[in-house]
């Protein structure tokens, strides 16, 4: 295996890592907001959240990236707006697509965890004089988050691997550099094997961090 390719591939590592972390953080914040909206049954907003979930869980991530990156350019009103400097950037569009996709799946995960909380927990909160909103935010949501953490770890890995699709809109991440290196050398097997090993290493590290977090959270919940 030609290790001379490694420095070139690692040029895109920072971009891949940054894209993954920002997408995860943005997606998590949106998922928490969407989960609260669904749990409080805010009628108009709930329909919008359900529509977002339907669109982003029912279509491939690659199509979502293409639509967010190429779609706004078809409308002059968007090109002439303050949003265009952002929507014309491949990094931002890839991040937005990944974040919205992750938010849709994470919302389903978090809402399912909340629905699984026993009614006795709600009743205990009501007995203490809490409102439905106070019970949700102070007790139920943190409790559900601990339940959802193991499954959310899988979503973290999926977002990291999904970030490889960002290279299809000219973003020079790890896969972008791998594609360029392959076009220059035609050494397809070596180039993409090395890229795959880098992704595998990232997956291993993320998995280890998630397992450590789960251990700490479960230890805290038992104490």
Arithmetic mean pLDDT: 89
* CATH C-level name: Mainly Alpha
Main sheet overview = none
Low-confidence stretches: none
Amino- and carboxy-terminal Cα gap? 50 Å
Characterization of the model:
By secondary structure, the protein is mainly alpha-helical. The chain has a single domain, classed as MetI-like fold. It is built from eleven helices and no strands. It has helices at 5-10, 13-40, 43-58, 61-70, 76-79, 84-87, 90-115, 119-127, 132-162, 174-185, 188-222. The radius of gyration is 21 Å and the shape is flat. The chain starts with a helix and ends with a helix. The model has no long low-confidence stretch (mean pLDDT 89).
Short description, anyone?
The chain has eleven helices and no strands. With 223 residues, it is mainly alpha-helical. It has a single domain, classed as MetI-like (MetI-like fold).
């Amino acid at each position: 295996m030609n290790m001379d390719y490694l420095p070139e591939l690692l040029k895109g590592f920072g971009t891949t890592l940054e894209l993954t972390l920002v997408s995860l953080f943005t997606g998590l914040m949106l998922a928490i907001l969407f989960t609260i909206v669904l749990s409080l049954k805010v009628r108009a907003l709930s329909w919008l959240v359900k529509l977002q979930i339907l669109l982003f869980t029912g279509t491939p991530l690659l199509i979502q990236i293409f639509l967010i990156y190429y779609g706004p350019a078809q409308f002059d009103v968007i090109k002439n707006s303050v949003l265009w400097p952002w929507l014309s950037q491949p990094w931002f569009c890839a991040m937005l697509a990944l974040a919205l996709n992750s938010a849709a799946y994470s919302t389903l995960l978090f809402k399912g965890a909340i629905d699984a909380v026993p009614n006795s927990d709600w009743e205990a909160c009501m007995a203490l004089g809490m409102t439905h909103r106070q019970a949700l935010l102070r007790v139920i949501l943190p409790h559900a988050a601990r339940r959802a953490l193991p499954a959310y770890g899988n979503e973290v890995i999926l977002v990291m691997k999904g970030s490889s699709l960002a290279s299809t809109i000219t973003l020079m991440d790890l896969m972008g550099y791998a594609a360029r290196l392959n076009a220059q050398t035609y050494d397809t097997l070596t180039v993409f094997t090395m890229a795959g090993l880098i992704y595998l290493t990232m997956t291993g590290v993320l998995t280890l961090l998630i397992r450590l977090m789960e251990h700490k959270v479960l230890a805290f919940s038992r104490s």
